[in-house]
Amino acid sequence: MAYDLSFALGRIAKATSLENEECFVSFWNVVAPLVFQVASVEGGDYMTRAINSPAGEMAQSLLSRLAVHTEKVPDWIWQALKVITDARTGSAHLAQVLLASRTQLLFNLDRYWTTENLIPLFSWKCHKYAAAAWVGYIWQFGVTADLWPFIKADFILALKNYDGLGPAAKSAASWFTAICINQPLWIEYETASAILKQFPGEARAAAAHVLLQRLEGALDESDSLWRERIGPWLNGAWPKSPKLRDSSASLYLALAALTKKDEFPAAVPVVLEIIGSGEMHLYVQHYEALFARHTAKHPTELMRLLAAMIGTGTRLYDKKLRVVLNGLGKACPACTESPEYRLIEEALRANSL
Question: For residue 326, what are the contacts with CB-CB under 8 A and spacing of at least 6?
Fold first, then answer.
């Protein structure tokens, strides 16, 4: 019955006119206690369960009505939303997942209501289903300077509870990195470093991938972005322990340095302190223009970067790496005597390239 009533209510929410809204309100108030008493079905991630649950449909029906009121949100909606945030029975936390996904919207509409009723759901100390609330928030992530102080502490705890976020965890790592670069004063280097150290390898890879995407998207501003934001952040926050130099993160960090133009010579020493081996040789063709540029202008730095990417027993497949190495030898004859050049040469020969 809960399924039938809640999904019927969801359809009614989209079709009800303002003139007939009182009927919808009465129906919602009768159905809500019944639905939230229904035990949630375990298994699967919180977001999928929320979207497909009667409790989630109850929350969505309110959000649908919220969109109808473009001038002022009526009191009955805030009261109904509070029924959801206060509920601690059955499957109520699945409705809370969907409300959490609209945190920024609700904060913009009524800061006091949101900080008093919704934001406490994100507390790892006070709420059993804090992870569920964070999954919802991350699903439609958005944060302004006004909202940030209210969620900062629990967002950092969410990152430290990485495994509890399920499929949303990598997105959380990506948003963390975006905040660190876009709002460098919001998360201190020491705090960011502790988070990165605690992250599993996939999370550091997600963070490094965000840096690469930001730099590639910055186009002509890429060098200044590196010089003013990303380079200092890597130098101050990224862990330098060899044990944490995962191959995927190392690859993205190396490619991030490669995308630099005039800042490339300054970027290489920074990433060499934090990367291990990775399959950079597979990207020679994709970044052919950048390899050619740095071969001509910065052969020593490019050689050091390539050598750092080649680990013991690295399998090489692309013959274009041989072209790059030959070009480095011509641009910098003295480089052919360096340990880095010989390491790359030996790796190429070992793979018959």
Answer: none
309: number of CA atoms within 13 Å, CB side? 28
Q: In terms of Cα–Cα distance, which of 128, 121, 181, 185 is closest to 154?
A: 121
Q: What token pair was written down for 193?
A: 């470093």
Q: Is the pTM of this model over 0.85?
A: yes
Kindly report the three-state secondary structure assignment for every residue of 236-292. HHCCCCHHHCCHHHHHHHHHHHHCCCCCHHHHHHHHHCCCCCCCHHHHCCCCHHHHH
**Cβ atoms 200, 239 nearer than 8 A:** no
Contact 277/314 with Cβ under 8 angstroms? yes
162-176 pLDDT per residue, tens: 999 999 999 999 999
| Cβ contacts of 298 within 8 Å, gap of 6 or more | 264, 265, 268
- Whether residue 58 contacts residue 3, with contact meaning beta carbons closer than 8 Å, is answered with no
